[in-house]
Amino acid sequence: MYLGLDLGTSGIRALLVHADGSVAGSAEATYPISHPQRGWSEQNPADWVTACNGVVADLRAAHPDEWAGLKGIAVAGQMHGATLLGADDTMLRPCILWNDTRSFAEAAELDAQANLRALSGNIVFPGFTAPKLLWVARNEPEIFARIAKVLLPKDYLTFWLTGEHVSEMSDAAGTAWLDVGKRAWSQDLLDASDMRMDQMPRLVEGSEMAGALRGSLAQEWGISHPVAVAGGGGDNAVAACGVGALSEGDGFVSLGTSGVLLAAKDSFSPMPETAVHTFCHAIPDTWYQMGVILAATDSLNWLARNLGQDAATLSKALGDRIEGPGKTRFLPYLSGERTPHNDSTIRGALLNLDISHGPKELTQAVMEGVAFALRDNLEALKTTGTRLERVLAIGGGAQSPYWVELCATLLDLPIDLPAKGEFGAAMGAARLAQCAATGVRAQDVMSAPDVARTIAPRSDLKAAYEEAYQSFRATYPALKDLP
């Protein structure tokens, strides 16, 4: 048995998985996010530990026989967070999360330095880890002086599981401290933000063993045999492992809290000026590129919250088929935007509102705005030479046939919907755990899920949506120029 843990922004999901990929059981727990100031987003790592203990207790109670056969664990997680430990491994401050934008000035300063993009393969975004540490150095110098180790969120959980300070390539690639082509920490990149090599965790591949489950924790969990803990990976890389997106041409579109268009790559070929992320994959000698929008289902949830309705109810009101673009335009920049704009200060907008409009029209505008922004991501990916023939849809928004058909039409790609079952980051983590515990090749266990159906682009509506997309694309510069 293998345990996959997905440490998300709002909660943790655990899957207990057999060697053949079938799921024995699952459990979930939530934890809070703190926003002490505008643009700040923090979390208490102790809450991750409490949540992990909770899901393990649930799995042990529900599946005692399967739990007794546990051989491996891996953690997938939210990327870019700064978890700061002192010399005695005590927590120095709350973790600064991926969606925290306080370090926008530090990010711009780092990004302007010579060779930084060439080494890291990426623009330095405000959400990345390096500018967060530069902000801490300038605003919390007494804390900065005490830092012994910087761990990413899932690496902190791996540390709690093993007692080892370890990271891996896919998550480390989002720090702006990793030479992504060489898959190694870069002294030049560390120097740029006044960090030291000894403050970095040891690096392994995501499918390699990071350490063994601590004896005291194994005893507490009722386990009397060795359990391997894998390196794990950043959430999107591990989601790619969960759906078998490992080779050139494989890809997925994720309609989750954020929106992602991801393409696996057999080689390192960055083009950072496009604001496309080029990161190491969670398996050896493989990379991936992705465009990211910061608010996908988050945009629909925002609308639902303000209308006092349920997001699923709003979505169902549109039906299953698209009928052509609306006149109202929504720009989904509720928390700023990454690809292609790299703009942490831009904010969202609703345009062309009419007195006759109600929840249905607003929902359509929000869904279209997210799909238009994902088309922006595709155009950015194309400039790097990436080509996709079809993609798999994952994430909560993929439950809406309307939204998937809208994305298929705007991306002009067939979109496969997986058959019911478990996939994504928690499943990918379980597969990484299996690799670490047994030495099996990633390609032998990370297969694509069965496809329930494929949603094709609507050729009859392609021209109408193309015109609407060009209108959307022209709106960002005008919004940016507003005072």
UniProtKB/TrEMBL annotation:
Its EC number is 2.7.1.17. GO terms for molecular function: ATP binding; D-xylulokinase activity. It catalyses: D-xylulose + ATP = D-xylulose 5-phosphate + ADP + H(+). Gene3D superfamilies: 3.30.420.40. The active site is at 235 (proton acceptor). The record marks 6 as: Important for activity. Catalyzes the phosphorylation of D-xylulose to D-xylulose 5-phosphate. This is Xylulose kinase. It comes from Primorskyibacter flagellatus. The gene is xylB.
